[in-house]
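Raw record, unedited: SnoaL-like domain-containing protein
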Amino acid sequence: MPPAVHHACERLFYGRVYGLKKYLSGSGIKRAGKRLRVGKRNKTNLPIDILMEPYMKMILTALTLSLITMGSALASPATDAAQMHFAAVGANDVALLMRGYSDNAQLTWVGGPLDGTYTGADAIQGTWVKFGKAVGPLKVTVSNLEESANPKGSTVSANVQFESKMPIKVRYLLTYRDGKLVNETWQIDPKLTVASY
């Protein structure tokens, strides 16, 4: 976990706990007719700080995990475009697929009957039309979706399984520049593991 996220979680959490301790030490909560006071002893003869410590760690851990999950749930434009691309391949929606490509894009297909390199929108469109006629609609499963990005562009990699009668397991690489797909590698890999979530 990045140190900045950890420190932000600690500040938020301990600020909340301090407020809870003030509340517990005030007139807000009474247990067995006695007020619980911070630093004082209660029925277990332990300071409340010690009693609350395991709960503080659990809450801090839960808060940190939720922040990490939220960060991964917020997808980037390239990741969104890749997900839409995979779905369009599965639906055989060639028009939607072609909207994502730049004019001089390149598709490298490694393995299978369409093995080869296709450059330019017309060649790529013809390839997807052939593929759609051959396989029909496909169920799509995506796993291990990762993105590497810098100001010049983004590369998205994923393990994708397209399935109808037989599964087609593909290691996918998509490179985006200025919001358009410029390079696509479709690597057929029969041994690829695609975990469904």
